[in-house]
Amino acid sequence: MALLGLLQSGKHITQCHMCRGSDLFLVLDLGHHPPSDAFLRPDQLLDQEASYPLRLISCKNCGLLQIDYAVHPEILYQRDYPYESSTTKTGRDHYYSMAKDMHDNFPGPKGLLAIDVGSNVGVLLQGFKNLGYKVLGVDPAEAAGQKAIDNGIDTVGDFFNEDSAGKIKEKYGLARFITATNCFGHILELDSTVRGMVNLLAKKGVIAVESPYALELIENLEYDTIYHEHICYLSVKPMKLYLKRFGLELFDVKRSSIHGGSMRYYIGHIGEHPVRRSVNACLVGEEAGLYSEKKLKLFASKVKKQRMALVSLIMDLKKQGKAVVGVAAPAKGNTLLNYCKLDINFLDFLTEKTQIKIGRYSPGMHIPVYSDDHLFKKKPDYALILAWNFADEIMANLAQFKKRGGKFIIPIPTPKII
Ligand SMILES: [Zn+2]
Predict the structure, then answer these.
(1) What domain count does the chain have?
(2) What is the model's pLDDT at position 265?
(3) Which pLDDT does position 83 carry in this prediction?
(4) Residues near ion ligand 1 (Cβ under 5 Å)
């Protein structure tokens, strides 16, 4: 039984996640990591903790950056999956404005259906609902889905795939908008998901996929956005090629600053929307260097240098007798902590707003997680901002810490003290 569990816990990927090509090369090996959202209860600390290879690879054919080990979704997305998209104001504002953008750019009659895949607590759908749309969320994470339902957002507790999409179509009809933010790169059975989208999308309907942009990952050294939930790291070239296979067309792209720099892909049935210049401009312009092996190797060597710089910085502070902690414990924080091997000898504790993580321990490094109050009570000298993409908001929320003489450390792209 135990062996069976082990065999089914994940698999090596030997073909490109999108184009199925097998000419893949290693970009960066981050070592073995536990699932980055698997925060441990105190009673789990002495149990054996599973960890899996975490390696960034690239496809020579389509250029897709991806990882080459897929952990079983049931291990990654447990019932109490702790990510909640509404916990920051920046996030909420962003999703409301995304709904507004789509409403303004693709106007239609009132009461059309907007479906969000991986809807979490329903923030984006709340934006659509405010604009007069019928809304439906689809998300297998029970706790988040229940919260959405409590907030009046109709939610199906399931993975979005061909099968569940068929049932949705029968019950709710075709969708004007199908959105998938920060989940497209997480989906192992992506073909089935896309077929489900094609089947559910009205003739003139629009799919909007938004995901951290691979170019930002490479240019800004955002290696901590690599973790097992993120199977692939999207960019325009592989997306365009991939969607075509399903009768879909990528007709517009738009960059945004959320999550350290994201790209939004607007997609429709082939020929139903004019293809904007933005798509080609991206391919021949900024993305041109993303598919060079040389550039990717340079990225890997910079990541190794960043690790040394961050570890040395914190080690120097510890030698001076300073107390250092981590603030905000997002999934990406665990890639950074585990890759840099920053445990309680470096960071006394982490603080977090998400209730479900408080009282638990970070996966791998086992650093205890407290609420933000603990920061004011213990008055450490330095606070490492692990959710550096929300650094401005975090520093504003914790202004009191700075006023009392505390300093912040931002780790990415180059560690700096503020
Ligand atoms: Zn490929």
Answers:
(1) 3
(2) 98
(3) 58
(4) 16, 19, 21, 59, 61-62, 64
